[in-house]
């Protein structure tokens, strides 16, 4: 039995034993998942279980999301969360905006999901922050000066669905935003400014008013090729929008389908290897993690059969899917969103765990998942970032939540 070193903010180390078996760790190909549905990628090493060391970057509640970018253009990835960015490698905090304090037993922060993108194409990474569901989404212009606050710009005054995501619908290599608008009752995508130095995003509706997944507290949103036409579609738990080749087409066709209960990020992949796309989802505020097998409907439509993966922990409000052990099959990372509703959800006061689930596909197409413990005193926030942050060739896991800002370094 191998022991996992857990490094805390006071630099002491406590021992935690999460795996029943661990093999020598070899090089992983790093991939990034930020709440967007990036396709799973593989490693040069097959069948290797990753080992992690925990470091608390910041021990106060400032955000329920976090992300990375080379903020100061020094070649290292820095961490951004809430009103701070943390400078690598020592994680010195710098203010993005005026700091606030939050009491997680009574309420929420003003930072739910965080993304990064050079919005105005000036060569400096900017910061995108989603406020409380239904409130605004903003981008902050990187001034290139560590001691300055960043200028704030409004992208949209109401951003709905609790898993807003980044996508690249037009294939130009720049990230767009996808979320609902409760006032219009429409799912919308927003393009960053096309011109250099621009500050205004362009929003477009994809569907008719009052369609599913667009309400203030809607749960479940994803991006994947459901119908196998080579174009990724927009997924909600009530169905999916078929993304057209011509993005200016309106409205996009919505296909109703039953993809389960209120969930967080949704991912499409052919889990059983039968040639069509299945869907992964996880309960945002109750118990349950599922994969939904694509099957023919009674009238030839695309339908889904639900399969349970786990019910041992609740509030899986953030999920990242990718190949964790280099076997060319996608795994996923998730955990409990600590104090999601001040402990009032089912299982809300149980230990804030974080796990990765290993996919095993049998020769007959059978699907099973093995759960691996990463930690039992951190949990997740609204999304999870998994990528090689420190450039050592191993996958790291970044979370911002009510426990603070926490990294699990791959070892």
From TrEMBL:
SUPFAM superfamilies named among the record's database cross-references:
Integrin alpha N-terminal domain (SSF69318)
Superkingdom of the source?
Answer: Bacteria
* Key words, A-Z: Signal
Q: What is the protein's name according to its record?
A: VCBS repeat-containing protein
């Amino acid at each position: 039995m191998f022991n996992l070193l857990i490094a805390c903010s006071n630099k002491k180390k406590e021992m935690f034993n999460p795996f029943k078996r661990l093999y020598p760790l070899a090089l992983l190909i790093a991939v990034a998942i930020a709440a967007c549905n990036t396709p799973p990628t593989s490693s040069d090493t097959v069948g290797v279980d990753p080992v992690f060391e925990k470091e608390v970057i910041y021990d106060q509640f400032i955000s329920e999301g976090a992300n990375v970018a080379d903020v100061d253009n020094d070649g290292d990835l820095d961490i951004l969360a809430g009103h701070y960015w943390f400078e690598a490698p020592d994680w010195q905090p710098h203010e993005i905006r005026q700091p606030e304090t939050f009491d997680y037993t009574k309420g929420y922060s003003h930072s739910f999901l965080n993304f990064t993108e050079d919005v105005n194409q000036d060569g400096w990474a900017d910061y995108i922050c989603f406020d409380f569901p239904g409130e605004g989404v903003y981008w902050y212009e990187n001034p290139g000066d560590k001691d300055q606050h960043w200028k704030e710009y409004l992208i949209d005054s109401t951003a709905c669905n609790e898993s807003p995501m980044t996508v690249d619908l037009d294939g130009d290599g720049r990230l767009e935003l996808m979320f609902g608008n409760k006032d219009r009752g429409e799912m919308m995508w927003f393009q960053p400014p096309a011109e250099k130095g621009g500050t205004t995003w362009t929003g477009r509706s994809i569907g008719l008013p009052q369609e599913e997944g667009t309400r203030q507290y809607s749960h479940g949103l994803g991006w994947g090729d459901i119908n196998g036409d080579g174009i990724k579609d927009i997924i909600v738990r009530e169905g999916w929008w078929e993304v057209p080749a011509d993005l200016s087409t309106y409205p996009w066709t919505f296909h109703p389908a039953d993809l389960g209960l209120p969930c967080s990020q949704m991912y499409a992949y052919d889990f059983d290897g039968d040639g069509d796309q299945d869907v992964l989802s996880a309960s945002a505020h109750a118990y349950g993690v599922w994969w939904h097998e694509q099957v023919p409907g009674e009238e030839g439509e695309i339908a889904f059969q639900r399969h349970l993966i786990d019910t041992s922990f609740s509030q899986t409000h953030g999920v990242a899917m990718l190949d964790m052990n280099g076997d060319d099959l996608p795994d996923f990372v998730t955990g409990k969103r600590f104090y999601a509703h001040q402990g009032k959800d089912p299982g809300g006061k149980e230990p804030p765990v974080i796990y990765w689930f290993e996919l095993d596909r049998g020769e007959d197409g059978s699907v099973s998942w093995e759960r691996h413990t990463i930690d039992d005193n951190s949990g997740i926030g609204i999304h999870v970032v998994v990528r090689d942050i420190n450039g050592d060739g191993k996958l790291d896991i970044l979370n911002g939540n009510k426990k603070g800002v926490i990294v699990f370094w791959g070892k």
